[in-house]
Amino acid sequence: MGTYHNEVHPIFSYASSMRDPRCSKPVYDNVHGNIYLDSLALKFIDTEEFQRLRDLKQLGSVYMVYPGAVHSRFEHSLGVYWLAGEAIHRINSSQGSELGIDGQDIQTVKLAGLLHDVGHGPFSHLFEREFLPRVLNGSKWSHEDMSVTMIDHIVDEHSIDIEPEILKKVKDMIVTSHDNAPSKSSKEKRFLYDIVANGRNGIDVDKFDYIIRDSRACGLGCNFQFQRLLENMRVIDDEICYRAKERLTIHKLFSSRADLHRTVYVHAKVKAIELMLVDALTKANDYLGIAHSITDPAAFWKVDDSIIKRIEFSSDQELKESRDLILRIRRRDLYQFCNEFAVPKDKLEHFKNVTPQDIICSQKSGGVTLKEEDIAVSTVKIDLTCGRNNPVNRVNFFKDYESNEKFTIDDERISHLLPAHYQDIIVRVYSKKPQLVEAVSEAFENFQLRAYGLKAQVHGTPEKKKQRKQLPL
């Protein structure tokens, strides 16, 4: 990954009208410079439900590995609001008349960017992808659907005066990339739904913001330039398309996101901490009713990252097991990473998740007898947003601004250095007790031999780690 562009002055803008001090409030952002908030946006921002986003770290527990990653969903939401405005103003300035873009469209897109994460749970995606499915038997709850619920709650609770049509479209734009997204009428301006959460090809301002913001917070370079895409897009046949010369920039968008997943979001230590947090929340759930909050927006907005502090500072006996796990995290007595392997590419299509029971069944007789509660398995999927397929194949391009023809471009017509495969599945195994690392590692190796006929891991577990003893609490 390269270095930052515009490191000193990261301000990028087209919409001078958004800067009128008579109808907007400036807030300085360390990524985009001055962000100007309009009066309707401020009505949502100045509520306790939206201010809650300050207490949700954008990257959850990543800050325990990358200390600088303490930025919040609040600043990310302001960033997406701003970029959504930049995108729609750019389109409006060049094609507004032919597309029939009006002030309501601009307001709707900006609000969708602002409110897209207002229903997010604590600890990044851990809450909905790992905690809730465990305590609610495979729950399909999503933060996008909860954002829709929270928006209605905020409007009702604070008597916000907003046009019903704007409100409906804001909510539709937030869930447009979700499986439960409503179908859109052929009469609607579908390209508007590509800006914040793009279910068509995955290119949206949400990614533009978090890729740059997360890279900067973690101290990593990023040579993806979202500005190039904003400068080289136009709407053809109700779809946002990009100049053909920007195909590699789009590849860089998806590859930068994949690099962040591998390097930051699913870092082996980050996953160890997340596994412990999930166990702590699960053990505390019956007593605190954490999962029940998703049914009531008035209760949900009170659930944020501070739930861990509530457990940690409580003296209630019912929370002792959860407290002990949090104390282990504080003292860096983490679940021990034993080893990992990448699923062979010829096995990806029919891969089934590995369970602790699979590891136990691979243990040879003699020595320590492992139990399911001794082992944690993490299956990590890293892709370019489209599973095992190339997302760029879903993107349409145009030649120049005099042309109204859109087309796709195959990788081989651009470069032979681009990837031939688009997904990794990595299986990691952790020992919950330091003294069992050796036994778990050996059982994991045996599982690989049984499943694939070879040791798929790159190397054996280090001897020093196998010999580690448990730290006293």
What does the model show?
With 473 residues, this protein is mainly alpha-helical. Helices cover 41% and strands 10% of the residues. The protein contains 17 helices and eight strands. The protein has a three-stranded mixed beta sheet. Strand 1 and strand 2 form a beta hairpin. The longest helix is centred in the first third of the chain and has 27 residues. The protein is globular, with a radius of gyration of 24 Å. The N terminus is likely disordered.
Question: What layout of secondary structure does this protein have?
Answer:
Layout: E1 24-29, E2 33-38, H1 39-45, H2 48-51, H3 73-99, H4 103-115, H5 126-135, H6 143-157, H7 164-174, H8 205-217, H9 226-231, E3 233-236, E4 239-243, H10 247-265, H11 268-288, H12 297-300, H13 307-313, H14 320-330, E5 336-342, H15 356-360, E6 375-383, E7 397-398, E8 423-431, H16 437-452, H17 463-466
Parallel strand pairs: 4-7
Antiparallel strand pairs: 1-2, 3-4, 5-8, 6-8
Helix pairs in contact: 3-4, 3-8, 4-7, 5-11, 8-10, 11-14, 13-14
